[in-house]
């Protein structure tokens, strides 16, 4: 059946107009102008932390604006390509137009998902913690597989990551790991990953080759901003220092540089050991603690307003995705029903379709609530 190009292109333009309206390009350009002026101020780097915020936000906005402008140009170019192909009755050019149509539809779908991220903290960077749960050494190994999966996903998108803490299991894998993803809307995007992930496979640690089911938990928090006013009095924190641990060899730290912070009123405990100095580890641990306190305050506020319904995937501990490597190959999201028959690709960071379906599913849940 021949493609109805006029109808398809009209649909593309409707979707694009909706995206551009939500994105507000005029406001984006105005913000870029303001940040550009701050970025060239001679005293900008007198405050390195503020300078990093300004330059990072400017870079993110410029990339986003370029992405939107390029998409508009692609739709225009596609329409010209179709007109040329039909005028010349050129089958090869029509095939090229067909391929570009599908590529533009996919790219627009990704942009449309971004417009669904309208939560209070969705535009923030993300702090992700992975913990091994039931399943012994297989669960610890699974936690390490998930860590690599998210790192590869970030790498595919050229997103900067910073590992704050890794706690290695005795035999293999990880007890837990915490890392930051420095990218626009990282929190809104990755927050749909929160919950319990389940792995079914023939255990590489079982000499009898039996099938093993193991679990790992993923927690996603927004990075705290200066405007959040999370006040943490020193008297409310207990600071413990200890020797950093590692998988062995030269990576083991021989000084007491690792830091554990305990927030006494809530009992929240965070650790950081991946920096070289105790001061750096304490600063990183404080950022994680503030993020956890911010999230706790948000949840408490929503509970008081009865605005948060604890549907599947919205709380720590809810099983949300299954990775099956035996007796068949399948990764399936238990909320959206989205699935992939290529677990190797998923573990190598190909999770965008799962993220997009999760975001759309969450928006539908919110609208139906």
UniProtKB/TrEMBL annotation:
PROSITE patterns: RF_PROK_I. It comes from the Bacteria. Pfam families: PCRF, RF-1. The keyword Coiled coil applies. It is found in: Cytoplasm. Methylated by PrmC. Methylation increases the termination efficiency of RF2. GO terms for cellular component: cytoplasm. Keywords: Coiled coil, Cytoplasm, Methylation, Protein biosynthesis. InterPro entries: PCRF (IPR005139), Pep_chain_release_fac_I (IPR000352), Pep_chain_release_fac_I_sf (IPR045853), PrfB (IPR004374). Residues 51-114 form a coiled coil. GO terms for molecular function: translation release factor activity, codon specific. The modification N5-methylglutamine is found at residue 250. Residues 243-259 form the Prokaryotic-type class I peptide chain release factors domain. Belongs to the prokaryotic/mitochondrial release factor family. Peptide chain release factor 2 directs the termination of translation in response to the peptide chain termination codons UGA and UAA. This is Peptide chain release factor 2. The lineage of its organism: Bacteria, Bacillati, Actinomycetota, Actinomycetes, Kineosporiales. The gene is prfB.
